[in-house]
Amino acid sequence: MMLQTLNTGLFKLDGGAMFGVVPKPLWNKLNPADEQNRCTWAMRCLLYESGERLLLVDTGIGDKQDAKFFGHYDLHGSGSLQGSIRAAGYDLTDVTDVLLTHLHFDHVGGAVQRTGDLLRPAFSNATYWVHSAHWQWATEPNLREKASFLAENIRPLQESGQLSFLDRQPFPFEAIDLMYVDGHTEKMALPIYRIGGRTVAYVADLIPSAAHLPLPYVMSYDVRPLLSMDEKAQLLQRAADEDWILVFEHDPIVEAATVMHTEKGVRLRDKGPLSAFL
């Protein structure tokens, strides 16, 4: 049984959007903005091997959009999804399952690749997993999220016959529980691993970085921000009580951390690479 993070590169998003109602003088100390008010963020995925199955969680932004699209997000860094999988000792064809926490472009873009005019799943032997309610949410998008759900990232998964719904078929990993949250988007799936006597929670966009641990630090992208605060509070309560390891998908520096109760709420205790906790 193996669990490791994958670096798929860095990108930039508006700091105000990422920190919501929190004033810039506060969040700018945590993740300084550039001259366009954009902060640097990671796209950190997870790779989990159990028996004969190899599970990838989220896929980063991919590389199939045009230069104009990527120009908005200033992709940089040396990491890539395919390169990181191969550096871990695997081939793309070894991936048997891909869990997509949700279908925003920076989480699902690498799930589909472009060859000429052809769009097809990047992992030819994999089953792609998503909640059916989120699939409907993404394929019939609301005006707030429409720009985040790109048809070229989504439709090829269904057309290939490789798509499965988490709420309709058994998820083939006994050591993983799935927590569904609805504040950021409908039915985002957070995998909770039980490994080596520890609990590891991949917190996706519920808590995108260690800087987002305080409850008011909620993204403007969230469709139900008050619900996000409640869901975050519940998860952090359990994480502090039960000594969970949290893995941050978007933190450019902090890969994983444990948390503790303080007078100001749940805050960071220890931080480091995921391997240091397992």
Summarize it.
The chain has 278 residues and is an alpha/beta fold.
Based on secondary structure, the structural category is alpha/beta
Strand order of the largest sheet: 1-2-3-4-7-8
Helix % is: 10-25%
Q: What is the chains' assembly state?
A: single chain
Mean pLDDT score: 97
- Count of DSSP E strands? 14
Could you give me the name of the CATH homologous superfamily? Ribonuclease Z/Hydroxyacylglutathione hydrolase-like
How many individual helices? 8
Low-confidence stretches: none
The whole-angstrom Rg is 18 Å
Corresponding CATH architecture:
4-Layer Sandwich
End-to-end Cα distance, whole Å, is 12 Å
